[in-house]
Design goal:
The structure is a homodimer of 362-residue chains.
Chain A: E1 2-6, H1 10-22, E2 25-29, E3 43-44, H2 51-60, E4 63-66, H3 73-80, H4 89-96, H5 98-107, E5 115-118, H6 121-131, E6 135-139, E7 149-152, H7 157-165, E8 170-174, E9 180-188, E10 194-196, E11 200-205, E12 208-214, H8 219-235, E13 240-249, E14 252-259, H9 269-272, H10 277-285, E15 298-305, H11 311-315, E16 320-324, E17 334-342, H12 345-356
Parallel strand pairs in A: 1-2, 1-4, 2-3
Antiparallel strand pairs in A: 5-8, 6-7, 6-8, 9-10, 9-11, 9-13, 11-12, 12-15, 13-14, 15-17, 16-17
Pfam families (chains A, B): ATP-grasp, PurK_C, RS_preATP-grasp-like
GO molecular function, one term (chains A, B): phosphoribosylaminoimidazole carboxylase activity
Pathway (chains A, B): Purine metabolism; IMP biosynthesis via de novo pathway; 5-amino-1-(5-phospho-D-ribosyl)imidazole-4-carboxylate from 5-amino-1-(5-phospho-D-ribosyl)imidazole (N5-CAIR route): step 1/2
Chain lengths: 362, 362
Amino acid sequence: MNIAILGAGQLGQMLALAGIPLGIRARFLDPQPEAPGSMVGPQRVADYSDHAALDQLAQECSLATFDFENVPVDAASYLEQKIPVYPSPQALAHSQDRLREKTLFRTLGIPTAPFQPVDSLAELKAAVSRIGLPAILKTRRFGYDGKGQVWLRKAADCGAAWHELGGQDLILEGVVTFRRELSLIAVRGRNGDQSFYPLAENQHHAGILRLSRPADSHPALQTQAERYGRLLLDRLDYVGVLALELFDCEDGLVANEFAPRVHNSGHWTIEGAVTSQFENHLRAIADLPLGDTHLREQCAMRNCIGTLPDRDAVLAIPGAHFHDYGKSPRPGRKLGHVTLTAPDASSLAARLEMLDQLLVDS
Amino acid sequence: MNIAILGAGQLGQMLALAGIPLGIRARFLDPQPEAPGSMVGPQRVADYSDHAALDQLAQECSLATFDFENVPVDAASYLEQKIPVYPSPQALAHSQDRLREKTLFRTLGIPTAPFQPVDSLAELKAAVSRIGLPAILKTRRFGYDGKGQVWLRKAADCGAAWHELGGQDLILEGVVTFRRELSLIAVRGRNGDQSFYPLAENQHHAGILRLSRPADSHPALQTQAERYGRLLLDRLDYVGVLALELFDCEDGLVANEFAPRVHNSGHWTIEGAVTSQFENHLRAIADLPLGDTHLREQCAMRNCIGTLPDRDAVLAIPGAHFHDYGKSPRPGRKLGHVTLTAPDASSLAARLEMLDQLLVDS
């Protein structure tokens, strides 16, 4: 069985790796030549909106998916006229627009930070006076890893923020006071079956995910997160893996955003869970039974940003699992990750400390 | 880093899959077009002894290994003049000749069944009267999965056995009475570091491995097996993974044979051990630190022989990990395997029973 993957980054690569043992072969479309996925499946180098390329994929593959949420909805919709696309272009569209996304959360009764669309400096000032400060002005589309965002700390910041982002569709969001950032990796099959991984706790640095690990949290928090996850999956008639980013606040969970794809905060599932998020995404879209999402051991995942650490030194740490995406180094770029597994919490802490000394993010 | 793999069967495929996250890319040589390895790395279709093909591999790769033990020693030696080959062609040569192999065991003080080379019917009869019956007449070379072997149960069987195998280099081996068949998956790095997986217990059917799982055994047995493993690894100045097949007998362990490669009885290490045998083979030959060989959970591996079971039904079993090699079905052919993991022995037993009902070997 061949599946088409729009986007051949590291997520596509890891999807393709998970597919081989299942008898599922990936075929990629990505405008970047020699993208990471191309090591595991043939890559067609073309724009996502190239109809000839999409036509060929549709001929070779029985269904399609994508590895990042900024694939043009038009491309996914065009492909959907020929072969099934999971998750649906509609889910993709929701995630691409912060206003639609937050409105959907609100409609479903999932708490969010206060927000308001902003189309002029006057509207920005009005929104600030309604929502309060600090607040964050964000582009509604194509933001990732903290890009396309400006913080407003005082009323006088409005002008500069408007100067930087004005002219695009914008949204002002209130700032939520939270104890920690969490994410829920959820999966829904074509038959509606659903499964959830244990909540992950995430630490960011300069807007980029740095550390992710199964969260030490009360079962009630997991239940609350899964309730929000179910609402979202069912409303979108979602198929595949979805990541729901949440803030853990005094009054409960507050949704930040969702990604309609496998997610960086679920990479620890490769070694840490019975079934990885990558395999479960494939199982879901290929209409196979979903796999067990339980934790197998203590684990934590650390991104390698900008530079890769010394491979020998990392592999000398017991329980270290190295993941080199094969990308050329560039500051702020995710080049790989290391997952540490350990039989107990204290060994994991010791191993994390060893790893920290080897990693220099840039 | 590119490595050359002579042989692109399922073992080569699983080596290549383990290599991608480590930044190691496989390039295959195999005379069979579209072999399983070719899904994960480019395959050159040519004979192993094709010097032009070997020359090209040597240009593209920094070292070489192989995925089956019947690669011609000449090909490995030719390649070794250009790039390092691990395990060495010398280790390969020992494993290709049952007489050399058994003699090596004896030299190292590792117990074996009684054996004697046989070059004529008269020698066969003499060997039978010395070794006793039952005994097995085997070709010294190119036997696998029970092929090239004839059982002798009474003196009168000599003629028929000679008729079937005579003309090749032969060896007569006494039959060992054993409680069970075990194997030790061992790994040795380029710096001499060694590591061993827990002994595996193996069940064969019609000469083909059917079930393999970490053995429930006394620590003293593991110690004895590792002592034999160390003797063998050191004598051969071995680099990579080696599988030592052993009989568990009343008086202790008796060596049967060794395979100078990753081994079917170590497939459960992919999900069941901290580091898989495939990753550890790559770590060893690439001069990286060896990975932890401890068991992570209860597990068992079942081969799919001749036909693949229904994928949906297998994946509905909790803790089932499906491995489809992408080969066309043929009776007696290993097409894939399923590894079951479980948090405890009783769930594993229940899962194995479910799996057994889905598998029909042919």
